Every structure is written in structure tokens, then in C-alpha cells.
Amino acid sequence: MAEPVLLDDRPDERHVLRRAAPHLRPHRRALITAVVVGLADSAALVAVAPLVGRATDALDHHDRTGLLVAAGALVALAVVQLGLARSGELLLAKAGENVVRSLRERSVANLASAPLRFLESHRTGELLRRTTGEVAALAAFVRMHLRNLVSATATLVFTLCVLFFYSWQLALVQLVVFVPPALLAMRWFQRDASAAFGGKATAEATVAATFTETLAVREALQTAGGLPGWMRRFGRENAVAVTAARRAVRVENRIDLVSLIEGVALVALLLFGGWQASRGDISIGTVVTFVLASRNLFDSFSDLSQLVGHVQTARTGLARLLDLLAATERVKPAAPAAGSAADLPVRGELRCEGVEYGYQDGTRVLSDVSLAFPAGDRVGVVGETGSGKTTLSKLLCGLYAPDRGTVTFAGADLRELSEAELRRRVVLVPQEVRMVTGTVARNLELVHSAPDRAAMERAVRELGLEDWLRDLGGLDAEVGVRGERLSAGERQIVGLLRAALADPAVLVLDEATADIDPVTAARLEHALDGMSEDRTLIVIAHRPATIARLPRVIRLEQGRVAGRMACGS
Ligand SMILES: Nc1ncnc2c1ncn2[C@@H]1O[C@H](COP(=O)(O)OP(=O)(O)OP(=O)(O)O)[C@@H](O)[C@H]1O
């Protein structure tokens, strides 16, 4: 069995920005402009403290001109800073939103084209959480915190430059009293942040996955009485999620210690600065500059410490999203060689040779299956439940790639055909036809040929389904949430219509096992006759009536071809 590529529960968070670089590159100009404007905004903010210091010294020395110049500069700075702050915020939000939008599009596109084996190896809720939850968390970070992150970092660096420029002794006192204890508090936070936030994200993903499955199997749970047991399981997972969330909050609270350290540092600054000023080593204005600049220092440090939690959440989300992108890139079918389908005939023989296949739990489902379906063949595949019929149908359509052996159409390996070429050759109508919420027409649009209404009406006529569609309410009839207003047989009729619109050389129909009323069954059979005039028809047959109508039948037993027989007309 080929090893399936799996998502990592706790993907590596190191160098996450470097790994995200290819996704940032297309937006680099906008990002750089936004960051430069953000830096100018911070520089303007930091310049306020020295200007107030200047004004204080001018006042102290009764220098009216100096006072007026400093006051004028302060007013000008306030106006410039207002403009910079607003445009910086807008530019950064716009650039960040564009990055998030392209990540969202990429992950959805990758998932949509991911092989079935990859999708089946993961719980739907987990994939949903990565493509919606993590992207939403990133978008929220960009909208609310990215600008603060840039401005707090820049303000911190610029303020340190100002402090050292004015008095390295005072700056040192400030740094020694404030920075080491504050860093220790931060370190304490960071030590457990990754595990706490990662644990929270994983627990939430599990709850989301189980919740999604609850909706999918609600009917079975209610009818079979499994609801209490299922709810107990959900309760356990929910409790784990709550514990993980509490732990994340406790870890986040550790950074509140920084406020206490700030107070101590300000007292130290006033005492030491006042002593130096009284000795005439520095001016009063310098002490004022320091007090104001220290506020900038503390504020930006506190902003950064508040942001650490959000940065960590965004980092975890980004790592999980990059893991999804990397995994889906790895399983992406290789692009077919140029011209590989150019010589491929429209009709041809579908053949599988020595095919083996197994799911990820290690069981071999198909062994050494070799079958040939010449163009125009009409054949049924029968076998007991679990004998591998559905698996074979997915292999014949290229939805699964065999672990060993080949499946070819007119001599071309299905793996080497593009999705569009493949769907023009082989189409599967599965046992359970998936539908989207909306109208019949909306559901028929889901084929590669992008059919218009005239094409849909033509297909309905060709399959003799006019009465059925009229009774339903026409192409604009609503089918309910994911098609729940239609019976399993009617959903298969929609599947057949889709297949007719795709116009494939080979149609593989996995007959619905759910009870189909005789009228719908007759409609399906009639429609099938309408479809299969000049194309190959392979039916995974469950109904005796269907088997009787087919000229030959292949029997599968425990994943092997156990017999071929001619029957029917
Ligand atoms: N997605 C999957 N993951 C793991 N095992 C699977 C998966 N799908 C099918 N199987 C297993 O593969 C085996 C063959 O299943 P398959 O659905 O192909 O049989 P089948 O002959 O079509 O059965 P039925 O007539 O009930 O539809 C079964 O043992 C089944 O449990």
C-alpha cells in the first residue's frame, strides 16, 4: 500500500515566516511600502519626547524663541503623525488581507484538487478547521494586531536609540532595572506558549471534526440509539478543549508581570535622574525626555508582550496552514506531459492490469485485478459487500491511483491525463451522489463543460427525464440542503445528467444500494439506456433487474476477479 501523506497534528513552527516567504513574495511591494510608512509613523511618535524635553529646557532657560520653535515642531509632528498612522494602518491591513486571501484561495484550490485518498485520510472537520479557522485567525491578526506589532517593535528600537543618545548612564539604569526581569517574564510565557496554544488548536480541531460528523450521521445516531454514547465522546473532547483553552489563558496571564516591573523601573529612573540633574550632570529637559520616552518604551514592550499571545496564535495557525499547503502540494497529481492527450481518441478501451490497492489501515482491498472493457462494452460488476466493487469503480475513474499495476484508457495511463482530459474519457456516478444546496441547475453546473441551460434541457430530453424534471419543478427547483429533498435514486438521476453533460467515453455507475422505488428505478434504467448507446457502460450492480439487462457480468470475491459470465440479452 502506498504511504498516504498525512497532515501533522503539531506542525513545525520554526522558521514559519521563511517558509511563508513564497506566499508573501507576490505582495512584497505593498508589504514593504506599508512597513516603511509604519516605521515613519513610529519615528514621529518617538520624536515627541525629545521635543518636549527641548521645550522644558527652553522654559527653564527663559528662551522664548526656543520654546516657540519646539512647540511649532510638536504641532507639525502631531499632524504628520496623524496622516502616517492612518495611511500606515490602511496600507498594512490591505497588504495583509491580500496575503490572507491568496492563502485561502490556494488552500481551497489545493484541497479541491487533492486526491481522494488524501481527503479520505483526514476528518472533514480537521480540513475545514485548517482552511477556515486558521485562515480566519490569520485574517483577524492582520486586521487587529499586525500594525501594532510593526509600530511597537519600531517604537521600541527608536526609543532605545533616543535614550542612549541623551544619556547612556540613565539608559543603562533603565535597561538594567527593566529589561532582564521583563525578559524573564516573557521567557516564562514563551516556554509553554507553543505547547499551550498548539494543544488548544488541536483540541478545537478535534471538537470541530466530531461536530461536523455529528451532523453527517445525525440520522443514524437518532435511529440506532447511539446518540448518548456519541454525546459522551463529544463531551470528553469538549472537556479536553476547555482544559486546553484554560491552560492557554493561564500561560498568557504570565505576561502581566511586566506591568509591575515597569513601575519599579520608573521609580529607579526618577531617583537616579533627579540625583544627576541636582548635580548638574544632565538638564531637567533630559529627565523629562527620559520619563516620556520610558513611557514609549514600556508601552511598546507591553504592546509586544500583549501581542505575543496573538503572534503565537497566528504562528500556530500559519504553521498549520503551511502544513496543509505543503501536504496538498506533495499529493498534487503531476501535470501531464505536454501533448500527452493530443493523440488520445475520444472513444477507446479501458483496461486495468495487475491492479492492487489498499487503504491506509493496511488492508489490501484489491489484488491482481486485470480487466478489459472494449469501447461500447456493457458490463456489470457484482460481488458481496466489501468485495471491492466501489474501490474498483474509483480506480477505473482515476479517483484513486493503484498501489501496483496500471489503469489505462486507449493505452494512456490515467495518472498521466489532465483532470479535464480524464473526465472527458471516464466519469463515475457514485452510490451517493453529492449535491450542493441550491437548484437543480446549480447542481448540473458542476461539470467541466460549464453547460448552459439549453445544454441541460437537451440532456434531460436525451435521457427521457422531462416528466421527472417537470414534477420536480424544473431546473430552478430547489433541492434543499445538500440535496436532502431528493431521494438517493433521484440524486443518482442528477448524477446521470451530470455524466451526460460531461459526455464521457466510459460511464461507471455505482448503483445506489438505498431502497429505490420502482418508478425511480425504471427512470434510472431508462436514463441509463439513453446514455449508453455508443459508450462503454460499467455498472456496479446491486439489483437483479440491472444484472439481467447487462450482456456480461464480472464477479469480484475478496478483491479478486472470481468469474466472468455472459448473461442478459
Ligand atoms: N475509505 C476507506 N478507508 C478504509 N477502508 C475502506 C474505505 N472504503 C472502503 N474500505 C474497505 O475496503 C473494502 C472494500 O470496500 P468497497 O466499498 O470497495 O466494497 P464493495 O464491494 O463496494 O461493498 P458494497 O457492496 O457494500 O458497496 C471494505 O473492507 C471496506 O471496509
UniProtKB/TrEMBL annotation:
UniProt-recorded name of the protein: ABC transporter ATP-binding protein
GO cellular component: plasma membrane
PROSITE patterns reported for this sequence: ABC_TM1F (PS50929), ABC_TRANSPORTER_2 (PS50893)
ABC transporter domain: residues covered: 350-569
Mode of membrane association: Multi-pass membrane protein
Pfam families, alphabetized: ABC_membrane (PF00664), ABC_tran (PF00005)
Keyword Electron transport applies: no
Membrane-spanning residues: 30-53, 65-84, 255-275
Broad class of where this protein is predominantly found: membrane
One Gene Ontology molecular-function label: ATP binding
Domain ABC transmembrane type-1: residue ranges: 32-313
Cell compartments where the protein resides: Cell membrane
Record keywords, A-Z: ATP-binding, Membrane, Nucleotide-binding, Transmembrane, Transmembrane helix
SMART domains: AAA
Domain of life: Bacteria
Membrane keyword on record: yes
InterPro entries: AAA+_ATPase, ABC1_TM_dom, ABC1_TM_sf, ABC_transporter-like_ATP-bd, P-loop_NTPase, Type_1_exporter
